Amino acid sequence: MAEKVNNFPPLPKFIPLKPCFYQNFTDEIPIDYQTLVRRIYRLWIFYCITLGVNLIACLAWWIGGGSGSNFGLAILWLVLFSPCSYVCWFRPVYKAFRSDSSFNFMAFFFIFGIQFLLTVIQAIGFGNWGACGWMAAVLFFSTSVGAGVVMLFPAIMFTLCAIGMFICLIRVHRIYRSGGGSFQKAQTEWQSGLWRDPPSREAQHSNFSGNSLPEYPTVPNYGNPWS
After folding, report:
1. What is the rounded distance in angstroms from the CA atom of residue 61 to the CA atom of residue 148?
2. Quick count: other Cβ atoms within 10 Å of Cβ 105?
3. pLDDT tens-digit profile of 204-225?
4. Buried b vs exposed e over 154-179: b needs ≥16 C-beta within 10 Å?
5. pTM
């Protein structure tokens, strides 16, 4: 097999940095789950775009007479959450479907659940949180209508993100539980050290020898998860 070269993020050639991850939905994800994993990936992209729009809205909030601390926090959320959300919850679910890793499924459920709750808080829009949610946008209309209108955009987008995250969380959990996944399997992977670098589907088949199938050859077939 040809050596897999890291291809994500797709950095321009003039940047003296190399991609950190290898990502190929067609080759590594079972065909029944490629649509689901791609949608989670697009959800991550949409969340990053939402953070960018939120930064612009917080600038309008500041110009319209709001606190400058919200703009500073919006910069922090964009710089921090964009890469961390990819590493902390998209990569675990990608590796979970790639190699049927119970530990990565559990990591995804825990971290993605926290991300969902945080996105709900951002959509609500409490003051001095650096997020232009519904409360912040509606209350600021009495101060500046123009800024309030701009602040509505990230409020809507955060709401859509929260809805999408909730749906994806339910879908992935339903697939995992219907395949016999459990916390005990995740503990077994932790104790054996397989969670660090779980073998791919191809490696599991090529390294197998015996009269019976390995315990986790692939992610089981549960049909179309979006039906």
Report:
1. 8
2. 28
3. 444 433 443 334 334 444 444 4
4. bbebbbbbbebbeebbebbbebbeeb
5. 0.82
